[in-house]
Records
---
Amino acid sequence: MKLTEFSAVDFRNLRRLRLAPNPQFNIIEGRNGAGKTNVLEGIFLLSSLKTFRPGKNKDLVRFGTQSGEVRAVVEHQDTTRTIRISISPKGRRVWIDGKLVRSAASALGQLTAVLFAPEDLSLTKGSPSGRRRFLDRAIFNRWPGSLDAVKRYESALKQRNALLRTDGSDALLEVFDEQLARAALRLSQWRQKYIGIFHPILEETMQLITGGDLRTTVMYEPSRLADTHDQWVDIYRKNRRQDRARKSTTAGPHIDDICLLLNDRSAKLYASQGQHRALVLALKIAEIRLLKQELGYAPVLLLDDVSSELDARRNAQLTTFLNSEAFGGQVFITTTDRSWLDFDSKSTCFRIRDGDTSEH
């Protein structure tokens, strides 16, 4: 899977940008604030229909303009698809090969992209919300249909919490408990299914990165153990008094976590800074390896200035993996200084300055 064209018009600070990407390595170089990350965000938007940064639709449109768009031509398995997304304060619209897409589900899966950003380096020692986000994004890349489970759960949770805040009746809560239980069961099933496939790949990847010095274990850590719809309903009923007191739902996938162990000890509590970096690198490489194993092709990889955040050893390991046949995918990487990078003749460098680009 590769992008052969990418363009952006009035997207963030990108006025009229057009790239003819290299099939292997694309270096997006520029000063801080020049618009490098906006290029990656545009590609990510085309793959997932959402961005990886906070903000409303109006924040995605260049200041002083009414609308913007991103567009890409994607080649995959002898098929070429053109994806275009227009953005305005009123919403987003998606076109596939010039035809307006009526449902998000039919637009998903046209482009698979994995993001590795500096924020990911706090993944193993940060809050559970970051690990849940990593897991749900990874599941989405493998099974785009899982997005429906996430949306249904978020909607049901929002409605139940709104009812708790307004002291709604038990009769109404019974209705929302049923809805939330169905959504919680489905989302937790997706997560456990992914972890089951992911764990051995992560274990092997960590062994390769550390030369066998560190063993890693990843487990899904639910806030409550429930394997059926009825068990989830029972949990919400038993928690009702506590939930009313706190005016929010106190159990469910929205507070679950991933437990990561290094040599049978909690990585969050006991890992050194170097071990945290090794584990994050292993998590991202394992995610890519899983996709290639399951889908038969490598995703497009988006690296947002990660090279300046990793130490020399981890940079070398990442570069070795990206240059290997085990990956074989297309990479877009941002940097303020391309001397950090070593991709030889396999790369094209695009210089971004104030939302405009030049190739050199």
---
Amino acid sequence: MYNIQTLNKIAAVGTSRLGSNYNVADDVQSPDAVLVRSASMHDMELPESLLAIARAGAGVNNIPLDKCSEKGIVVFNTPGANANAVKELVLTALLISSRKVVDGIEWAKTLKGNGDNVGKLVEKGKSQFVGPEIMGKTLGVIGLGAIGILVANAAVALGMDVIGYDPYLSVDSALLISRKVKHVSTLDEIFEASDYITVHVPLTPDTKGVINSESIAKMKDGVRILNYSRADLVVSQDVIKGLEDKKIAAYVTDFATDDVIGVEGVIVTPHLGASTPESEDNCAKMAADEIKDFLENGNITNSVTLPNVSMARTGAARVCVIHKNIPNMLSSICSKLSESGNNIEAMANQSKKDYSYSILDTADAVTDAAVEAIKSIDGVIRVRVIG
């Protein structure tokens, strides 16, 4: 029986995939894995029993990644599961950044009580909400991952000229992008050519504040900026200054911070990007599948801390080892198994930055002594045997 702790409400369509061999609750003791959405885990005591954390969503800023890596806890996310939901909201943001729909709706409410004069007042006042069409305009997409690709392709279908920037564009992602999307090699090309800019990159030291006074200065006058990725990708005070100077026509964001709320030209949605039942279901199902495959088979898919490693079961026992990415680790692990009388039938190993993950299938059972021998190797972080 596996114990799974939920830190948020996880859609039943996901947890039901785990089956009868799983005890899933928010108050389980000694959890083998945690399923989480937005709850912060930074101040949470991570029990020794904890093998994995699955975030039902893409961002993992609520999880202490460094601490998890040091303790050999695998952290998963669910890239792409909420991509369509975010894409649809970004398209909404694209339109409302142009047409002053939000201001118009709020103004229309003030006409209540004018009876038969409402129609005349509408015709007299509607000119203050004039805004441009998006067809024929240039959209710059920063980040061509799961969401960025969907946004770019949809914008092409809406008649926009689309340019995209992503220095880490994978072959698989490239195959999904419309041929009409022009891939550029520098951010400056995005800043200088775009009428609209939308940001779809993770928050890292390299991307923090990518929209700032320096980049804004390179943009077209009247540019419209959309941020449906992370608040700190944008230096809000620089955007506010750009709005005051009429350099920026509109800023639309899904991240409510005190400094941007109520600022003229800013439209704030309350973190609605993935707030659809379809998205929540997709994230829950993917997170549950990742946890299940890891706990039962040791396979890793979509980890943000370790490489993807999967292998079909072939032996009587499977040895799973999380270790530092240093020379001779795999040969040392194999030697310890060999010294314990275990014959290795198949193995897989991959590295990701400072950490590696190895799976070894053996022809017969692995003894506790063999496990302890592997643990004694300098650089080994965690050893698990699946029978």
---
Amino acid sequence: MYAGMFVYPWDLVEEGLDAVAERLRAAGITTIAVAASYHAGKFLRPHAPRSRVVFPDDGTVYFRPRPDRYRDTPLRPAANRLVDEHDLFAVLADRRRAHGLEVAAWMVGLHNTRLGTAHPAYVVRNAYGDPYYYSLCPSHPEVRAYLCALLGDFASTYEAQYVILETPGFLPYAHGFHHEFSLVPPDPWSSLLLALCFCPACGRRAAASGLDAERLAASVREALDAFHADPSLPQPSDGQALHWVVADLLRNPELAAYLRWRTDCVTSLVREARAALPAAMRLSVIPSVDQPLALAWLEGSDLSDLAEPADIIEILGYRASPGEVAADAWWARQRIGARARLHVTLRPAYPDTPDEANLLAKARAVQEAGIDGISFYNYGHIRLGHLAWVRRAVRALGTSG
């Protein structure tokens, strides 16, 4: 069984590829998934030899891009400063026989605040026209060309067995943006309405499918205006708010059709991304950063549809309860069937996993749900002692590479 570990390039640089690879092999890991395109953050690194807190450069790539690959789009990747001295993916390929790990290039796709800020014409815009700079909109031909060029650029230069594509679609409204703040409590209903994109490109693509995006945007504004106007409004529970979503979908078929159209938009982009890669390089898609997995449609992800172009669907099991993780894995397995392999990513530490028994229970539960592989997030974030938990979890599943 596939056993992966997500790793940041700066951890490989500071600790050394050979040292990290040795630890991962000892933990039963078969694939090292290294960030090839990533966003900003503030990360605590409990076993870092130097910087214990790191702020990675926003929206950069950790390989050497070739400008000629991006002729069809004004969006251009920026190489991270680490690449000047450390061409990590070239080194990973050179030492693959020695370290014995398969390589996955972990690509964060349309979540790119650097590009969104520099090119606001290509970002998601809500019903009020407000830009979400962190989220490039997959309706724009230029955004689609950028993502496909990015994957094709990497694949034309570097050797990897997998590309793991994260954020291929519309991001949720709440996404941990810098100092993200609201004195209006969030709920699934209003969060859905705020997440919908009505940018000009969405309007044009929706119109081609017979949908009136502006009319729908007006109805969304009306609903949100009423919601935001009444300070005495009781806060709905998540369950109540989800019932409101269902009721709106039944009452407003245009909203349901718009959500369905969004999934077609994302699936077609993933199909184009798959075509940009060589057949031997397997494409794994992370369909959603939301929890539970059934909310993937907020990002335009339909697991059944994505299983056609993707080789692997990789879901994030970021839950405390083994039962909740297993339920998501079961739900995913039912929707993708045998058309794609199913991987589950677990966090073997805080805030999801209080002890080793919890991690082992999750590993066994998702195995029973029919997964084909397991991954762990993230080498640089966890204590080194957690690798012993990972080793025993992988051993409980058995691996075949």
---
Amino acid sequence: MKKTLSILLILSIAVLACSCDGSFGGASLQEAIEIPADGIIEARILSQIRNENAIAVFMGTSEEISYEWTIFGSDIQEVKDVNLSVDIRERKGQEVIVQLSQEEAFGFSALLSVYLADKWEYQGATGYEADKPVLSVSLTGSKNSILNMSLDGTVSTIAIRGDELPQASSVVETESGREETPPSDIENDPYLSAAQEGDEHLYTNGKDKYLTDPVPEGKPKPVEPEHQEVNAQTSLSCTFSIECATILNQLDQLDSDKLDLVPSDGVIFPETTVTFYEGESVFDVLQRVCRENKIHMEASWTPIYNSAYVEGISNLYEFDCGSLSGWMYRVNGWYPNYGCSRYQLRDGDVVQWRYTCDLGKDIDGGYAIGG
């Protein structure tokens, strides 16, 4: 493992509380470092982070709200004193105001994570400056929400508001053909359906032959890969993204050899509209997106579930950030309870691949890792 914060801790003696012998009272190299009272992190400390290509975490509090700055040495372009003190005000469940003390650009982008006392009922959030959207904010955390955003100091006051849940229409089979129902708010539904007579996917024990639990009402049933019919004459589109922001809150759990693989904002592939052919699966599009954007991806076939199992994306694999970590996929706000190569995409779907460190609990998910 490369040296990360060893020299940083030594150089911080003049800034942070320390013992007389220059140690930090047993603090480990990957523990967050408390931001000093004046908020200033000296240029020499940032220089050391850059020279060591380290990942440093600085923590502070504002009005009983905890926050952390994660700084990646590889992102530091200009070295100077920076003020990491932040003033945070929260309107419960509605809006968070973040005001930086820094009066000019940092000279690098850093990840700011704000730990809220409550759980936000949103899938994502947006940061606004004077009511103009200026940045995307990801939400992680299982019991309480953590707001994660990438900042470079050019925006001093940000109002963060939760995004409305996406809407989508569903298609149902009727005697007269396929009919589209009106759009409705999409939630992470519990299992609402039970085995139904005549349903080829379900059996008397409540599972299909690939061990899939009943699909919630209103959600699409799986299409087996051997029954997949791709129409290359019809192009559709969906919104696709890949992110691992939850790792940024669990860096102490991450395989030390993988530190350089985690983007400073957790975004591997930003939310992008991509095209696909009618009949293709989530896995088909994942393969294409990764191939065209030179993103590493590895998957294996799991016969018992009749689906591909995504082991790693961008060289981040299952178990790299703890024994409960790995990749999950979400479509229109729902984590399907079957594999990604059994999920047939529809025009306008919103697909997100997300890394979990806690078997989905930290990303509002509840089904199996690996898609």
